Automatic annotation (TrEMBL):
Database matches in SMART domains: AAA
Entry annotated with the keyword Transcription regulation: no
InterPro entries named in the record: AAA+_ATPase, ABC_transporter-like_ATP-bd, ABC_transporter-like_CS, ABC_transpr_LolD-like, P-loop_NTPase
GO molecular function ontology, one term from the record: transmembrane transporter activity
GO CC annotation: plasma membrane
Protein name (Swiss-Prot/TrEMBL): ATP-binding cassette domain-containing protein
One Pfam family matching this protein: ABC_tran
Keywords: ATP-binding, Nucleotide-binding
Length: 223
């Protein structure tokens, strides 16, 4: 089970536009429940990643509301949004985005540092995650010595460390071979089944069909 409180994300009449005359999407309503995985799908440039970053409080909507854990998150100050991200969310990106100057284990522990919880138990949890996902390279090495699939598994470990209530993944299997992609995807679905709220932006409709629900993102009326 995911530690702590399970969290609902609710979008109400959400609109995002770089140009007022041409919104990327408009009037989006959706409720993301704990214990579910949701795939955000749509053509290239439809706004899948944008919607994910809105949910992750890294962007602000043009209009509408984002409620996380019952809090109007879009109205929070920047420092409050950052605190909510650190407390509730784990992120997996298409490119692993590991710090090349830090060891593998320190990359996994990065999120815990922002929560001031990095310690012996957290380090043991990080090592257990690396072992679980088959990262057999010495954890004190630098990530430059990893394959792409191993690097993404390290990024997955970083996202899951501390068992956050929400995991957001942006094309997490886009650059992976089938075996590594299966490992990452199965881990995300399994984590949702354990009680987390998992949202995945993906172009892979075959894997998207394995999620609890699918949200079509784009200029057409979103589902």
């Amino acid at each position: 089970m995911v530690r702590g409180r399970q969290v609902v994300i609710e979008l109400t009449d959400l609109t995002f536009a770089y140009s007022v005359a041409d919104p990327i999407f408009a009037g989006l309503d959706h409720r993301f429940e704990p214990g579910t995985s949701t795939a955000l799908v749509g053509r290239s440039g439809s706004g899948k990643s944008t919607l994910l970053y809105l949910i992750g409080l890294m962007l602000s909507p043009t209009s509408g509301n984002i409620a996380i854990d019952g809090i109007a998150a879009d109205a929070l100050a920047d420092w409050q949004r950052a605190e909510m991200r650190a407390r509730l969310m784990g992120f997996v990106f298409q490119d692993a985005l590991l710090d090349p100057a830090r060891s593998i284990i320190d990359n996994v522990l990065e999120g815990a540092l922002y929560n001031d919880v990095a310690g012996g138990d957290t380090r043991e949890e990080a090592l257990a995650l690396l072992s679980r996902f088959g990262v057999t390279v010495d954890s004190e090495r630098r990530p430059g010595q990893l394959s792409g699939g191993q690097a993404q598994r390290v990024a997955l470990c970083r996202a899951l460390l501390g068992e956050p209530a929400i995991v957001l993944a942006d094309e997490p299997t886009g650059n992976l071979d089938d075996m590594s992609a299966d490992i990452v995807w199965d881990a995300l679905l399994g984590y949702a089944a354990a009680g987390a709220t998992v949202v995945i932006a993906t172009h892979d409709r075959q894997r998207a069909a394995l999620c609890t629900s699918i949200v079509e993102v784009g200029h057409a009326d979103p589902a």
